[in-house]
Design brief:
The chain is α+β, with helices and mostly antiparallel strands and about 80 residues long. The chain has a single domain, classed as P-loop containing nucleotide triphosphate hydrolases (Rossmann fold). About 20% of the residues lie in helices and about 35% in strands. It is built from two helices and three strands. Strands 1-3-2 form a three-stranded mixed sheet. Bound molecules: guanosine-5'-triphosphate and magnesium ion. The site of guanosine-5'-triphosphate (GTP) has 17 residues, from α1.
């Protein structure tokens, strides 16, 4: 059985949303010390195995930069 989950990361610029998302999905190698702002948003996937179950995380990593505010607002709307 696969549980599908969608998580949206929102917050001010440079607080560490992308660092957290990439470390979660790719492990410690995903962490980047240099700052590269997210443009619009980025979608990441992670299949998490827990006991006999699998959780399919779709992570929407949004930009905290105000110029992308409209795109971020679209991403947090319920589907
Ligand atoms: N020391 C330390 N630095 C961190 C941590 N998390 C993120 N950073 C650093 O903070 C900076 C910004 O991190 P990002 O994850 O890109 O920030 P963001 O929230 O995605 O920013 P936007 O994409 O502009 O919204 C980067 O240089 C990261 O290396 C942390 O837990 N500890
Ligand atoms: Mg980011």
């Amino acid at each position: 059985m696969v549980i599908r989950s969608r998580v949206v990361f929102v917050g001010d610029a440079t607080v560490g949303k992308s660092a957290l998302a990439k470390t979660f999905c790719q492990g410690p190698s995903g962490f980047s010390k240099s700052y590269v702002m997210t443009q619009g948003c980025e979608v990441l996937d992670k299949l998490w195995k827990l006991n006999n179950r699998q959780i399919d995380f779709q992570i929407i990593d949004t930009s905290g930069q105000t110029i992308f505010r409209d795109i971020t607002a679209e991403m947090v709307k319920p589907t």
